[in-house]
Each structure stands twice: as structure tokens, then as C-alpha cells.
UniProtKB/TrEMBL annotation:
SUPFAM superfamilies with a match to the protein in the record: S-adenosyl-L-methionine-dependent methyltransferases
GO CC terms, sorted: tRNA methyltransferase complex
PROSITE patterns according to UniProt: SAM_MT_TRMB (PS51625)
Native species: Solimonas aquatica
Gene name of this polypeptide: trmB
Entry superkingdom: Bacteria
Name of this chain's protein: tRNA (guanine-N(7)-)-methyltransferase
Annotated family: Belongs to the class I-like SAM-binding methyltransferase superfamily. TrmB family.
């Protein structure tokens, strides 16, 4: 397994915000976790064994309340999806929705996504990594907490299959510019935008309530897409 620099391992790109869980969300975690949940493994996961088949694999970091991830899980039964989220009300909501639909192509972890990517997953196992609206940590003194850093870019490359896609979105322009600078400098990635900038919103990216609220406030959204070379 890859070893990240010590200072990077200690810095979290997220803050746990448990929030209030509804009875339905709590019940979903209690009853559905054995079906969909993944706990810290002793060694890198065998994804074929985890999902019970071989299929293209999509990994989403920070799925929030799960609207986007649920939409893709249900629309793409030929793909397997692995979502990571530390906000447990969002985990419970997602589990309820996919279970009601009878979906079998989802697994979920409630853990630090960098550790999951680095320690739980083998190299070159993913067809796509999705990161939407990560915490921008907009104060300058907090920029070191941003998820998208050179170390993370190298880790993402190592877990993507050749030709695999890294898809990102943010509504913070300064963070979008930071993402471009970091990811354009990573030799293992090729920007899908011919001008080296942003791409149009992918058809698979559902507009969530969060994004629609931002649009009403006049926030632009910046989409980025990179292929592992």
C-alpha cells in the first residue's frame, strides 16, 4: 500500500458534522449497513468479491445526502459504485433510497476518504473517481486542508485504471483555479478540456438542491475532467 507523507496523513480535508438523524436514517444505518456498509479491512479489498461480480467501478468522495450517487446507482446497474461520506444522516438517507429500489450495486464507507483510497483499495482498480463540491476551505490559513493537493493527485492516478476518469466540480472559483493548477501539473493526468480549462457539466451530474440554491445566489459552477494517461 502507498505511504503518504506524514504531514499529509495528519491533515483532514473535512470536519465531522453529524447533524440530527431522523429515525428512518438511524434505522437505515442499523438495518442496512450489513448489506451495503464496508468497515476497515485488514488488507486491500477484493472488489470483485465485495460486489460479487466484475464490473466498471465508480468511487465518489463525499456524497453528501446522496442525490447524485443514488441517481447513478439506479440509472447504471451495469456499474458498481463505492461512496464515502462521514456525514451519517446522508449515509442513512442514501441507504434507505437504494434499498427501497432494490439496488445491489452500491457499497458505502463512513470514513476518511483519503485513507479509504490509499489503504483500502488496490492500485488501478477504479474506472472513475468523482469529487463534487468538496469543502473549499476558503480562508488562506486553511488552504492546506483542501483535498485537491499534489499528493492526492498522485494517489488518485495510482487508483485509476489507465484511461480512467477523474471528475470534479466546485462552485468556488478560487478553488477551481487551485484544482486546475494542481491537476494540470500532474503528469499522470490529461485534462479533457482542449484548452486546459473547464469542461461542460457532464450529463451524469445531477443538479442537487445545493447546486440549485447556489445558482439562485449567482454562483457559477466549474466542472473539471481528467483521464489517467
Amino acid at each position: 500500500m502507498d505511504e503518504a507523507p506524514a504531514h499529509w496523513r495528519q491533515i483532514r480535508s473535512f470536519v465531522r458534522r453529524e447533524g440530527r438523524m431522523t429515525e428512518a436514517q438511524q434505522r437505515a444505518i442499523s438495518e442496512l449497513w450489513p448489506r451495503y456498509g464496508v468497515e476497515t479491512p485488514a488488507q486491500a479489498l477484493d472488489l470483485d468479491a465485495l460486489f460479487g461480480r466484475a464490473a466498471p467501478r465508480v468511487f465518489e468522495i463525499g456524497f453528501g445526502m446522496g442525490d447524485y450517487l443514488c441517481s447513478r446507482v439506479l440509472a447504471e446497474p451495469q456499474h458498481d459504485f463505492f461512496g464515502v461520506e462521514v456525514h451519517r444522516p446522508g449515509v442513512g438517507r442514501l441507504l434507505n433510497r437504494v434499498a427501497e429500489a432494490g439496488a445491489r450495486n452500491l457499497r458505502v464507507a463512513s470514513h476518511d476518504a483519503v485513507e479509504v483510497l490509499r489503504d483500502w483499495l488496490p492500485e488501478a482498480c477504479l474506472d472513475e473517481i468523482v469529487i463534487q463540491f468538496p469543502d473549499p476551505w476558503h480562508k488562506a490559513r486553511h488552504h492546506k486542508r483542501r483535498l485537491i493537493q499534489p499528493e492526492f493527485a498522485r494517489l488518485a492516478v495510482s487508483r485509476l485504471k489507465p484511461g480512467g476518469l477523474l471528475s470534479l466540480a466546485t462552485d468556488w472559483q478560487h478553488y477551481a483555479e487551485h484544482m486546475l493548477a494542481v491537476l494540470n501539473a500532474e503528469p499522470g493526468l490529461r485534462n479533457e478540456a482542449v484548452d486546459g480549462g473547464y469542461v461542460p457539466r457532464p450529463a451524469t451530474r445531477l443538479k442537487t438542491k445545493f447546486e440549485l440554491r447556489g445558482e439562485r445566489l449567482g454562483h457559477a459552477v466549474f466542472d473539471l475532467a481528467y483521464r489517467r494517461v
